[in-house]
Amino acid sequence: MKNVTLIYGDGIGKEVMSSAVEVIKATGADINFEEEIAGLEAVEKYGEPLPKKVIDSIKKNKVALKGPVTTPVGKGFRSVNVTLRKELNLYANVRPVKTYEGLKNRYEDIDLVIIRENTEGLYAGIEKEIEGGAETTRLITKEASKRIAKYAFELARRESRKMVTALHKANICKLTDRVFLDAVNEVHKDYPEIELNDLIIDAACMNLVMYPEKYDVLLATNLFGDIVSDLCAGLIGGLGLTTGSNIGKDGAIFEAVHGSAPDIAGKDIANPTACILAGAKMLNYIGYEKEAKKIENAIEGLIKEGKYLTKDLGGNLGTKEFTKRVIERLQ
């Protein structure tokens, strides 16, 4: 049995995460979920969105499955997601993006992975007030850049991917992005079989919309990776289909990319696919590869069939009914 920290989150979190848990249990994987709370519910109960006991639980179990959480705005609280990544040193954010046969999208053959550095950049939170405004510092170090580059090349090698594209703005951020690019080029020497190129971030956004099929592994600093991953999600049908894995040396958190969507909470209309697939990524990470593949195949088959889809994908199923259909395919 494997212990996993479970965070349902806010808004639609309870609904979509319940779907993920149901599907995981239906695979027969021997998982014991240890539930913790974070976000608005934690503020109400503990006075803070990320109690220490949550971090302690993840450190103990080494793995967590997390729903979307809300950080109260204007209350002085740091982002729950950013804090978790920094506290647990989850330096690699991994977001696979691929088209699903059966959906009416403009694109048919997207299959790429975004590798985003998760601890530095503008998300380091180095800010101060200045006369007439405020100032933030973009922190980029050689150590963190080499670490995320190595992760990207290792993933490319492991998944037999042929090209890594480093995204940057070195024409403007001449010092910070030069540190990043120099580190990437240095690491690339150990992976001669993988092609490396680089692309200025604004040109990358245009090219990803025009020719997404040309790209394989996208490697980016924190902010650029965040923006590009949402752009790529839009190319395949939206955030309801995309997952994010936050990986570190001693642990990992798996989650959907989308937010808590409080406006549709409790209405049984949220698409649980991203959370279900996050559960599959989590299973694969802890050694339940067969169970993970069963989930991925069930999702792909259901979407390809086209009869049982949630409303955001052009169907009419609610959260619970869609989950039921996924489990039927598993069995």
From TrEMBL:
Supply one GO molecular-function term.
isocitrate dehydrogenase (NAD+) activity
KW Membrane (keyword) present:
no
Q: PROSITE patterns, per this entry? A: IDH_IMDH
A single Gene Ontology biological process assigned to it is:
isocitrate metabolic process
Q: Which residues form the Isopropylmalate dehydrogenase-like domain?
A: 3-326
Q: Which Pfam families match?
A: Iso_dh (PF00180)
Report if keyword Oxidoreductase is assigned: yes
InterPro entries (alphabetical): IsoCit/isopropylmalate_DH_CS, IsoPropMal-DH-like_dom
Assigned keywords, A-Z = Oxidoreductase
**What Gene3D superfamilies is this protein classified in?**
Isopropylmalate Dehydrogenase
| Similarity comment: family membership | Belongs to the isocitrate and isopropylmalate dehydrogenases family.
Q: What is this protein called?
A: Isocitrate dehydrogenase, NAD-dependent
| Protein species of origin | Anaerofustis stercorihominis DSM 17244
